[in-house]
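Take a look at the protein record below and tell me what you see:
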Amino acid sequence: MDISNIMQNGAQAFQSKLDADGDGQIEVSDLVPALTDLFTNIKGDMDISSILSGLNAGGLTSVAQSWLGDGENEAIDGEQVTSLLGMDTISSFAGKLGVQVEQAVGGLQEALPGIIDQASSGAESLADIAGDLFEGDTSSAEALLGDAADTITGAASTVTAAVGDIIQGDDKTA
């Protein structure tokens, strides 16, 4: 799924939280660019790994795993959203939308699980996330991806050993 579709869905979830009374104060067309700015890096790619690392560092590994998995996404509360993204970031985001910080946090509570869930669907995305995490703290990757991290680590070790054997002329597969 492409980033614009993910952000569109996130914007709709955010809007449903803020516009519970149906007064239409905030438009999806305003939310999409604000959410895109919030969750993408300079290259325009989704920055999932930093969010997942933040969840793990905050003791929310089970939340991260639920967002990565195929089952129901665990909820995140307002304090956790604020801790994860930081007050300055949330204040800036709220300012772009012209809403109160509390409203922004409430909308992000609703939108964040779905955004990460959709952005992380598919084996290629999970491999990318694992790769990003392995560049930093491997314990984070192992905690977030569980058995998948063990499989990736084992496969990487096997490939590394095989390449080493080939370089040394000990290719046992030939």
